[in-house]
Amino acid sequence: STPVPGVPQEVKEGFWSHLLGIKSKEGKEDLRDAEEKAKQLVKDAGESGDVMRILTESRNLKPVEEDMLRRAVVLELATPKELEYTEHALKKFVTLIESNPRSMKRLVNAYNTYRAVATLSYVDISSDQLALWTILSIRWPMLANTLMDALEETDDGLKINVDRLGEECRLLLADENVKKILRGGDEFGPLEIDTVRKFSRFRY
Known about the structure:
Strand order of the largest sheet: 1-2
Strand content: under 5%
Shape: globular
Number of strands: 2
Order of helices and strands: HHHHHHHHEEHHH
C-alpha cells in the first residue's frame, strides 16, 4: 500500500482558522472570487504545460487566494493529461524501482499522494527530490524513517548523524540503488538533506 504522510499541525490550525473566517457574507464572496481566480491561473498554466510553476510565480496572493490556488493545482494534477505527464517525468527513475508495471504504478500513486500533501501543506519541493524521496520511502521505509530520526542541527547546518542509523540501515547503504538515491545518478542529483527535513514534517 502507498504510505500516506500526515499534515503538519500549523497547517491544520490554519485550515480551521480559514473555515471560521468564511462564515460572513464578505468571507464567502472572497472565497468565490479566490476560487475563480485560481481556476483561471491553473487553466493558463495548463496551456503552457507547467501547472506547478504557478505556485512559485504567483506571489503576493492573499491567504485565501493561495489556499484556493493550491487546491486547484492539486485537482488539476489528478487529470489524465497531468498524470500522463507525471509518468513520463518519472521514467528516468525507473532503474531505482523493481522492473515490473505494478512497481511503476505504485511509484506514480505514491508520488502523486506526496505531491498533493506537500502542495496543500505549503511545502514546495522539486519534482526530482520528490521522486527520490518517494522511491526511498516505498522501497526502504525503515531507512527513510531512520534518516529523519538521524537529523541533527550542527554549527555547520543540518546533518544526518550516521551513528544513529543502526546496523540494518548501514547495510542498506551498500545497495546500489540506495547509493544512487543518496549520491545521485546520471540523470538526477542526490537526495538532499533539506528534502529529508521537509518530509519529516509529515510524520504522524
